[in-house]
Write a structure and sequence with these properties.
Elements lengths: L1 E2 L5 H16 L12 H17 L2 E10 H4 L2 E7 L14 H14 L5 E7 L3 E8 L2 H9 L18 H14 L5 E7 L21 E6 L6 E2 L12 H5 L12 E2 L3 H11 L2 E4 L6 H6 L4 H6 L6 E7 L1 H34 L7
Parallel strand pairs: 3-4, 3-6, 6-7, 7-10
Antiparallel strand pairs: 1-2, 2-11, 4-5, 8-9
Helix pairs in contact: 1-2, 2-11, 4-5
């Protein structure tokens, strides 16, 4: 059994003690009264909530190294229209990014993972979670920004969200290294110059910027409902260049991606189709990670969370408590009504 408290344990203990005192401290009319069902129920409710706040869990037989179990991994993925360019080994760039994110996560078992997507603006699709299956599900259902709504892509759109998430984790879990994988093509297509992400490289212990696309460029499929896309674009199934009327081409901007990598303090790597993800991880700088995690690379168990069981039981007791309170209130109203009823035969 292991514990990962969501708040300091002493705060949990203090809150539980105050709650128990409130339950057990007798009122003048209850002094000397024995333990009843209501007291036992409320006592159990307090203990269950306190236990859940301590986040109990069981370690499985499958151990992982602390250099992955102790990580916070942020995936920042481009879902702009250019992610639908068909120059990634016969498939789209987004298909390549989906596969690479899942493969990277699988090589870091036990890590806490988060997903941020961006086009012109950014969205936190998945807050940090140790549930790798949640990330895999999010990537499986990930779609590019609908073409009809697209207003271009901003390579720095995810900067504010990423910076806030990194700062929060640095404050809450200062001993847990933070890794960032930025996946995109580096194209800045909104009508303003590319800005910096605004992320302090000291908050990032490792990762990489993975670049998708080719210098010759690829045509882009329409994303989202075709019916919502007007003009010849809808009939061709491709995004067209409004000036030439020909299928528009999207090209990788390696210079922009290198600038992003330099700002994050990580390497820029081309994500070539068919490239094994191990090749990417071998080139990821883990120096700063190794300085933070267990120097001996000790093995820790993959946790099975148990707090939800305690919260489920607490919810059942709370429902019981609410039902009992409703019953007592109804009984009190009936008693008062009976006391106000006039006696038969006069005053």
């Amino acid at each position: 059994m292991t514990w990962l408290p969501v708040v300091p344990p002493m705060l949990v203990l203090l809150t539980a003690v105050i709650g128990l005192v409130a339950v057990w401290w007798p009122s003048p009319e209850d002094r000397g009264a024995r333990l009843d069902a209501r007291t036992a129920r409320r006592t159990a409710l307090i203990l269950l909530v306190a236990g859940a706040a301590l986040r109990p869990g069981l370690s499985s037989a499958d151990n992982v190294r602390t250099d992955s179990a102790a990580l916070d991994v942020f995936f920042v993925v481009d879902v702009s229209g250019s992610s639908m360019a068909e120059d990634h080994g016969g498939g789209t760039r987004l298909e390549g990014m989906r596969a690479d994110v899942v493969a990277l996560s699988a090589r870091m078992p036990g890590a806490h993972v988060a997903l941020i997507t961006f086009a012109q603006t950014a969205t936190l699709r998945l807050p940090l979670t140790p549930d790798a299956a949640a990330l895999e599900s999010a990537m499986a259902t990930l779609r590019a920004e609908p073409t009809a709504w697209s207003r271009g892509s901003d390579v720095a759109a995810a900067g504010a969200l990423l910076r806030a998430a990194l700062l929060t984790e640095a404050r809450v879990h200062p001993d847990r290294p933070r890794v960032v994988f930025y996946l995109g093509d580096g194209e800045q297509t909104v009508d303003r110059p590319a800005a910096a992400l605004g992320v302090d490289a000291r908050l990032v212990a490792g990762g990489a910027v993975l670049g998708y696309g080719t210098t010759t460029g690829g045509t882009m499929q329409i994303s989202g409902p075709v019916a919502a896309t007007s003009g010849p674009t809808a009939s061709t199934g491709r995004i067209l260049d409004p000036r030439s009327g020909q299928p528009a081409l999207s090209r990788i901007d390696e210079r922009q991606l290198t600038t992003i990598a330099d700002e994050l303090g990580v390497r820029f790597l081309r994500a070539a189709p068919g490239r094994k993800i191990e090749d990417v991880l071998q080139r990821v700088d883990l120096t700063r990670i190794d300085e933070v995690v267990d120097a001996h690379g000790a093995a820790v168990g993959v946790r099975s969370e148990l707090y939800w069981v305690l919260l489920l039981l607490a919810g059942l007791l709370l429902a019981w408590e609410a039902g009992q309170a409703g019953s007592d209130l109804a009984a009190t109203r009936l008693t008062h009504a009976a006391g106000r009823r006039p006696r038969e035969g006069g005053p």
